[in-house]
Amino acid sequence: MKLSQLKIDPEFQSKIPPLQFEEEQQLEQNIIAEGRLLNPIITWNGYILDGHTRYRILKKHGFIKFEVEEIQLANKYEALAWICKNQLGRRNLSPERKKFLLGKEYESTKLAVGGQPGNCNKVNRCDQNDHIDSEKRTCERIAVEHGVGSATVRRAEKYSRGIDAAEEAVPGAQEEILTGHIKATDEQIVALASIPKEERPAILEELKKKKSDRDDTVLERLKPSKPPPKPKSAPQKKKPTATENNTTSQAEQPETSVQEPITESPPEEEIEPTSNAPPSFLQSIQGHKRHLSDEDKARLKASVDARYKDKAAATGSIMLCELQGATEDFIFRWNVVFQEHPEVLIDKVCQKKLSELMDRMMSYLKTVKEEKL
Question: Residues 286-301: pLDDT tens digits?
Fold first, then answer.
């Protein structure tokens, strides 16, 4: 594919963290020195999914050789999800950027299969319950892939919608939030999505200020509104039953018998419950006292004793699993650095430092092999 055939979609590009000026200059120098791109530019239907910065460098220097890899995706939303997932594989993302990309990946994945953004109750392609189940599975899959909980994925989607609302009202606000120039809590960012568009610029301008200089009356709109208290209903009088009527009528009759002397009840701790049955739901939430049987006491003691028993000592095989995991993590992280930042292998300063690191590791491994620790 020719360079002139490559296209840029602003929505795609907005999901990719821009390089700092110094980083882009360094990358440009490395590419010129190499005379070619080490990694291909990834496209879908001619639109760049990965390689926007390299594309700009290619346009400036026509002699640089490059390759293009076209991937097959079903639609635009799958392309957006691919971009977000690819960017989340990078190690130098800020927490704000990670939340934004995670939320956009979840939202785009749902839209790719016919869901509605931010709403699991409207659906175009399938039955309502089927769609809810599908959305749940999508959320859980993305959570597992990125090592987070499903709730984190859902919160990230709300956070990304707040970022979109800010960008819609004030172009450029997205990068200011994601780079920390606008400092706000997650709750404040999420609340922006529910604020009318015309009111957002004033709120964002206030968030740019130091906390001590902010006008709290302007930011009051970002606080969650408390629901009004429910009115207390008047207690309804219970209709007396036939037994109660009979008792009442008897109580109204004049007493003819001699009253028996009142005896004091025993202290509370001496009273044994009439039943040891499990407490009812109301009793369980109101603090019901239940008498412990001998069986209950034995089970409780066994539970407490088990808590303080010594845990099994780690064996050699368990520790080998630990070392294996550390080795695989080391290889993975180094590969990511070399793939995403190939200049590390070219730059002389980086080469020197890299050589020192490898010498240090090889010296340590040699010591381990000779059992001289």
Answer: 444 555 677 777 777 7
